[in-house]
Automatic annotation (TrEMBL):
Similarity section: Belongs to the 'phage' integrase family.
Stretches assigned to the Tyr recombinase domain: 164-333
Presence of keyword Transport: no
Alphabetically ordered keywords of this record: DNA integration, DNA recombination, DNA-binding
Name of the featured protein: Integrase
Matching Pfam families: Phage_integrase (PF00589)
Length: 343
């Protein structure tokens, strides 16, 4: 008897070796199937996946994960973010799919989740933190909607500590890059420094988002809508740039960048400029730092970059400003002004 397999998702990818491989999944976002289509192994893996999903009663973590993936909180995220989340969700399903929701209130549950993170950390602390973060996010979503009473993953902390505490682009770094990099890479640098936005959002930024005085955009990762007043140096650069595409940033041929193409060109330009320890992403933190040194408050910075107030404070507190001598200079100048004897 032939079994009809419904909903199978097929994905073809090009491997590093140059060969093309085809993978099959029980459904979009579902577990990967083993064996070749039509084989007993393939059918068995499909039926097992479907059976596991069917067994996801409303008292299991698998059910909660499925519900989260059907929510607008997940669907409205950027495509890349959803793909990254799904990788972590699959790890959670494998480990805790049949874990009963009623057991979340047990005081031992938090220890079980933390122990799982510790096992993942043997391979990668950063990925272990990411998996735990997604689990905590799903738990928080479930608690907010009344599916669960407690979130045992709250305030879990992090195992991975970034070593990029002092990775801020200096004025000298900026000048060196502008002197060595080709002209079509100057505008991405200025946009990042004057807006504090992520690479992906800037590469997708259309000319229609710029009205001559402000840039309006919706961040792909968070969905946050922001309006950024355009500073004079950035305005001059934008107004002088030919509009050869609907998108602002293009390569030397006037064609919108692909993510990989931009990263490759940016890396080569940095090497040519002698900049080896800084990344494009560091420009986002640099923008936060420069705004703070200029006297901007945390809410003012958040309004421009789209960070939460807490994230801005964390960046200023632990990653950048603790080593920025300009803050000390600014503080002393303010103190001198405050204590200056009246004439």
């Amino acid at each position: 008897m032939r079994v009809e397999l419904k909903g199978i998702n097929k994905k073809t990818v090009k491997l590093a070796s140059g060969t093309v491989a085809t993978y099959y999944y029980a459904w979009k976002g579902g577990p990967r199937l083993s064996g070749k289509p039509g084989s007993p192994e393939f059918t068995a893996s499909y039926l097992d996946a479907v059976s596991r999903k069917t067994r996801a009663a409303d008292n299991s973590i698998l059910w909660l994960l499925d519900r989260y993936q059907q929510s607008s909180d997940f669907i409205d995220k950027a495509k890349r973010t959803r793909a990254d989340y799904l990788k972590q969700i699959h790890k959670i399903e494998s480990e805790f799919g049949d874990f009963p929701l009623t057991a979340l209130a047990d005081r031992r549950t938090r220890g079980e989740f933390l122990a799982w993170r510790d096992r993942l950390a043997i391979k990668s602390r950063r990925q272990a933190d990411y998996a735990f973060q997604v689990l905590a996010l799903v738990m928080a979503w479930g608690k907010e909607r009344g599916h669960i009473a407690v979130n045992p993953c709250e305030r879990g902390g992090r195992l991975y500590q970034s070593k990029r505490a002092d990775q801020v682009w200096s004025d000298a770094d900026e000048a060196a890059f502008l002197a060595a990099a080709p002209g079509h890479l100057h505008l991405p640098l200025l946009l990042a420094l004057w807006t504090g936005q992520r690479q992906g959002d800037l590469l997708r930024l259309p000319w229609s988002a710029y009205d001559g005085a402000r840039i309006r955009l919706k961040q792909g990762k968070t969905g946050v809508r922001i309006v950024i007043p355009v500073g004079a140096p950035l305005k001059a650069a934008l107004d002088a740039t030919p509009r050869r595409s609907p998108l602002i940033l293009t390569n030397m041929d006037g064609v919108p960048w692909t993510s990989d193409g931009f990263r490759s060109s940016w890396r080569k330009a940095c090497i040519k400029a002698g900049i080896v320890d800084l990344t494009f992403h560091d420009l986002r933190g640099t923008a936060v730092t420069r705004l703070a040194v200029a006297g901007a408050s945390v809410p003012e910075i958040a309004a421009i970059t789209g960070h939460s107030l807490r994230d801005v404070s964390a960046i200023l507190d632990s990653h950048y400003l603790s080593r920025d001598p300009a803050l000390g200079e600014a503080a002393i100048r303010k103190l001198e002004t405050r204590t200056k004897a009246p004439e």
